[in-house]
Every structure is written in structure tokens, then in C-alpha cells.
Amino acid sequence: MKARGWLYLIAATLLAAPWVLPGYALEVAIQVLILALFATAFNLVFAETGLLSFGHAAFFGVGAYTSALLMQRASWPYLLTLPAAVGTAAALALLIGFFSVRTSRIYFTMLTLAFAQLVWAVVHKWYAFTGGDNGVTGLQPGQLWSDPHALYYLALLLTVVTFLLAVRLHLAPFGYALRAIRDNQARAEAVGLSPFGYLLAAFTLSGALAGAAGFLQVAWQRSAFPDFLYWTKSAEVIIATILGGAQSILGPSLGSLVFVELGAFVQSHTEYWPLVLGLVLLGLVLFLPRGLAGLGGARAGD
Amino acid sequence: MKRWTIVLALATLVGSYALAAEPIKIGALYMLSGNFANYGSASKEGVQLAVEEINANGGVLGRPIEVTFADHGSPDQAVREAKRLILENKVNFLFGIDSSSVSLAVAPVANEYKVPLIVTHAATPRLTEMCLPYVFRTSNNARMDSWAAAAFAAKQPYKRWANIGPDYEFGRVSWEDFITRLKELKPDVEVVSEQWPKFGSSDYSSYITALMRAKPEAVFSSLWGGDFVSFGKQAIPFGFFKTIRFYVNPTGGALQALEPLGKNTPEGMLVSARYWFLYPETEANKAFVKKFHDKFGDYPSYNAGEAYEGMKMLAAAIEKAGSIDPDAVKAAFEAGGGLKYQALEGLKWMRPADHQVFEDLVWGYTKNTDKYPFAILEPIVVVPAKDTIYPTKCSK
User: Fold this and answer.
1) Residue in chain B nearest A124 by alpha carbon
2) Host H or E run for residue B173
3) CB contact under 8 A, B84 and A264
4) Which residues of B touch A134 (CB under 8 A)?
5) Where are the domains of chain B?
6) Are strands B190-195 and B218-221 parallel, antiparallel or unpaired?
């Protein structure tokens, strides 16, 4: 009953936010939702399978570029580019995953990083198609989606869907299988689970959802840049997830909230923001090893 | 009844005075952190000095200027900061921008909110070729630098040309514009080598030897900032500058590049500075340099000069418009064949179609002297604005 009360409160806050928040705060709130979606997607692989992907920026970026290029070159309406963005991100994740999920731990991390940097280099250099380092600029996602209110609700919808999907997956046999593989691959295989198939499926789903986050970023920013695919973007989502607590289902969202708000606040006050941000994050990681979610003692599956 | 009228009149007067004294808000985005923070902080100093002078003289339209500085970071951070300045600080104008990709990201956003953006450093020709109604650039762009370099190159007897530039848009476009223009002016030139080190490279030895193997007579280079410094330091021991006859670099006249090279700077390189603190030798320019040096302890680099002049030119446009309404300011920039503003370095003319400023470009040959701890430009050569006026696809 108590949990349900909290749930209603959070839902009401999220729904009412655009009517309460002043202009800029709403813009930042959309950024929080986008990162929350991205981080929750990333954590599908990280928490459930224990594999740390350092290449999720590739899926985020490819989703963004798919949406941006379809709008710019083929004049597709913004919303229609969503399935395309998710689809291309999924296809890329399937490809990268096919080669990566067989490897374990550090090799997986390095391989995903290498693949993502490869995709970044292609986007960065292919002037004729992606615009190279000029990016894709001057996009107008239509009258409706240029309005921050509409974009906020779209971002909220996609984030909530992803969140519910993550919860559902966690509780489903699929989630149990992933955790079994994570905890002891040899035993999981002994009981008849095929790790490759499960891991690839989780990785592809996670990549596809990251593509949806990229799709939202394009509407918010009105442009797409190679920075979206750079390793620093992958680092961002890792930091947000760890900050919030990877072991909690709410952790990545909580981490995103703090990461984005903190970044926006500190950058507007000092040019030494990378230093301040670094120190704050260092402190949080040192003193809250289970992330912010660890404060409440909430654990996944509780 | 009569008393009320007086009170009302007084209230209106006070009211209008308060309104008139309300500051004009400008949000300035510069690269204030990271590897190129020395460019951003120089620009910031230029803006600070300009605003101080404007406000000391009673402001613009009787209103003081109030500048909020922000660090632009990467394109997505810059868009967020621009939105903050527009939505939270309620700025009337956006100003500045060092990085080309950031300028391309911020321009459409500023345009959408109808907050005029005045760019003082980012040099990609693409920015003004977007033809956005509320975007202006008060400094010259990379294409004009390349055309100016080509104008010099065409007068030289050298036919064997080579390039070394950073491997991204700026380097590629600079070379393409340069060589296309040079071939128009002097059809018998040939390209013997093109070297594309990664932007931000630290090791240039393989590129230097490759260049020297091709035996060019003349080299065009768009390496800038730290790249220019590293390349220069490494090329000297190879004897690079002794084997080639002519070296031209459209960004080499930056103090951020010449100061770190110090007395080791190879002499006789033809470099551009956009603004060079020793030119022209007018009282006004000398006074500006002195004031800048007294205040910040350094000479104004080209982008400090351009930021200073950009702010003054914006103030002139607002004054001419008689209001800060975006459409009025736009009209002031465009009216009468484009705003002409007398800057320290010469006349700046705003082309109405694409909102790009054209001006005489200051170039010079590097020379070490006893007076300064870094190389200066001597002799100075000036490319007249008319040699850099390229066609635009924008129409008014």
C-alpha cells in the first residue's frame, strides 16, 4: 500500500511537471528523461548479464542519425522515424553483439568500445552521407514535436515503456536465465541454457531501446552530431547508471536525474565544471558504492 | 484632478526611465574549458573590454549591456546552454562561439527562438550558407582566408604545391577552397602531396618526411592551435622550412600559436591573423592594445580583437535600429546595402544576403625581433576585401 502511494505520487509529479516547470527547467527535464531511457536500456545488459558495454553510444547515435537523416533527406514525419531508428539500432546491436557476446568481461568491454569507435569514425568521415563532423543540422520535427510539452510527454511515454519492459524482463524467465548465465555460465549451460542466444537477445533489445533515446535527442537538439557516438557518450550512460545504482531497477533513472541536473547546474556556475563534476561523482561513488538507490535500501526484485 | 495628472505624468516618466535603464542582455558562449580554453578566454576578455567601454559611454540606447558568459563544450552541451541563456536568463542576443560544429548546432536553435546570434570566431563557411535570418558573423570565415591565400599564391612563381591540414571539415574545406581558387587564378599549378594528420595529433614526423619526399616548392597548411605548434617544433629539426620556398597558413597568426613557439618560430612563413595587434598603426589601435595589455597582462590575440569588434558592431546595429527588437536589428544590419562599421582593423561590411562580414584581411611574414618574446608579422601584407568576396547561395 505504501509502495503504491509512492508510485501515484511519482506518476502525478511526472505528469504535472511540464505545467509547473519554467521553460528551461522543462528542457532539462526532457534531457533527464532521454538519459534515463538510455541508462535503463544500457542496464538491461549491465545488471542482468553482468557485461559492461562500452559501446552503447553507437546505438544511441545510430538511432539519432537514422531519425535525423530520414527527416532531412526523405522528409519523413518525425514520429514515423521512431520505428526506423529503433530498427537500425537493433540491427547494429545484433551485428556487434554477434561478435561481442561470445567474449567475456573485459574482452566484451573492449570489443564493444572498438566497434562503437569504428561506427563513430564512419559517421565522422562520411561527408556525403552523414555530413561528417558538420553533423545533420537545422531539423524541424514538425509543429507539434518542436513544442517542449509534447516532446516531454513523448519522452516520458518512451521512458516509462522501457522501464516497464525492464521490470517485466527482470521478473520473466528470460531475466532469470540471464542472471543464471551471469552468476555461473558453466552451470547455466549444464541445465541446458544457451548463453549466446540469451545474451544476444538482451544486447539487441538494449541497443534498440538506446536507439529510441537517440531518436528523442534529435528532436530536442534539432541536430545530430558525431559526438553522439563517441566513447564519452558511452561513459556518460555508465556513470549515470553506476551513480544511481545498477542493481536497482530505478537506479539508472535516479542517476540520470542527478547527472543531468548536476551537470546543468554546475556548468552554468563555473567554467571549471568538469573538475567540480568529477569531484562530486568521485565522492558519490566512494561513499555510496551501491549508488543513490542504495540509500533507500531498495534492491531489484524486492 | 490636475494633481492626478501630474502624478500620472511623473509616474510615466519614472516608469519610462526605469524601462530605458533596463540592461540589454547578451549571452556569450565561448570555449572556456578543455584544450582550447585559451582561445575562449581571450575572446571573453575582448568582450569584457568592449562592454566596459560601451557602458562607460552611457550604454546603447541609454541602456547598459549586461553579458552572461557560458562555456559551450560539445554541440549538445552548447545547445543546452543556449537554451538556458534564452529561456532562463532571457537574453536578447546570443554572441561568440569558437567551434565550428557548435556554431552549426546553436545557430538553428537561436534562429528558432528569434534571438539573434552574432558569431565572432567559428569560421566554417557553412554557417552563413545556412541563410538563417537571425544569424550573423562579424569576423571573416575560412573560405575568405583560403581565397586570400590563393591570391598570394597566384603571384608566386611556384607550381608544385602540397597540403598538410587537420583531417576534419575545416582542414578539408580550407584546402579545397584554396586549391580550387588557385587553379582558377593560375591554371598551371600541380598538387604533389596531401597530408591529413588527425586533429590534435602529437606526432607529425611521418607527415613531415612524406611532404619532403614529394619535393613541393610551396606548402599550404591549415594546422592551427596546438597542432600548428607541434608541427612547427617537429618540422624545424627536419629542415622542413629550409627545403620549401613558401609556406602559407591562414590561421598561423594567432598569438595562441606564436607565443608557445617563441623564438623558435621559423621566419618567413606567410600567415593570417584576422586581427593583428600591431596593425594598423593608428592611435585608436595602439590605445586599444595598451588598454587590453594593462587590463589582462597580454596582447589581444586575433579572436580577442574580433570579439571586441563584434560587440562594438552589434552595439552599432542596435543603435541604428533604435530598439532591440530582433527584426529591427536584422533590418539595421541589412539596410542600405549592409551595415558598414569602422573597426580598428578597417571597414567591416555586412553582406545583406548571407549576413557575412567582409573586410580587408591582414597577413604577414613571421619574423623574430628583440621587442617581443614571440615572432611578429613583418612585413604586413593586406588582402583587400574585394579579393575575398565569394558568391553566396543565400538571397535577400
Assistant:
1) B168
2) helix B169-185
3) yes
4) 100-101, 104, 124, 126, 169
5) 2-140+283-358, 143-273+361-388
6) unpaired
C-alpha cell at A89: 539500432
d(CA B23, CA B58): 11
User: How many residues comprise chain A?
Assistant: 302
Please name the helix (run of DSSP H) or strand (run of DSSP E) that holds residue A5, with its range, or none. helix A2-20
End-to-end CA distance of chain A: give it in Å, rounded. Answer: 15
A24 → closest Cβ in B71, B75, B84: B84
| pLDDT for residue A141 | 79
Backbone φ and ψ for A135, nearest 5 degrees, come out as: 70, -170
A274 touches B: beta carbon within 8 Å: yes
pLDDT of residue B238: 93
Q: Which residues contact A43 (CB under 8 A, 6 or more apart)?
A: A166, A241, A246, A251, A252
Average pLDDT, chain B: 91
B104 closest CB neighbour out of A28, A137, A272: A137
Q: Nearest 5°: phi and psi at B169?
A: -45, -50
d(CA B186, CA B193): 18
d(CA B22, CA B64): 7
Q: What is the DSSP letter of B282?
A: -
DSSP state string for A116-170: HHHHHHHHHH-HHHH-GGG-B-----HHHHTSHHHHHHHHHHHHHHHHHHHHHHH
B2-140+283-358 maps to which CATH number?
A: 3.40.50.2300
- Per domain, the residue ranges of chain A are 22-229
In the predicted structure, residue A302 carries a pLDDT above the cut 70 = no
> pLDDT tens, B338-384?
999 999 999 999 999 999 999 999 999 999 999 999 999 989 999 99
B13 versus A2: the higher-pLDDT residue is A2
Whole-angstrom CA distances from A214 to A58, B81, B82 are 10, 19, 20
Q: For residue A297, is pLDDT > 80?
A: no
In this prediction the ipTM stands at: 0.84
For residue A31, the chain B residues in CB contact (below 8 A) are: 80
What architecture is domain B143-273+361-388?
3-Layer(aba) Sandwich (3.40)
β-strands B93-96, B117-119: how paired? Answer: parallel
Residue in this structure with the C-alpha cell 541589412, named with its chain if needed: B334
Put simply, the answer to whether B101 touches A132 (Cβ < 8 Å) is no
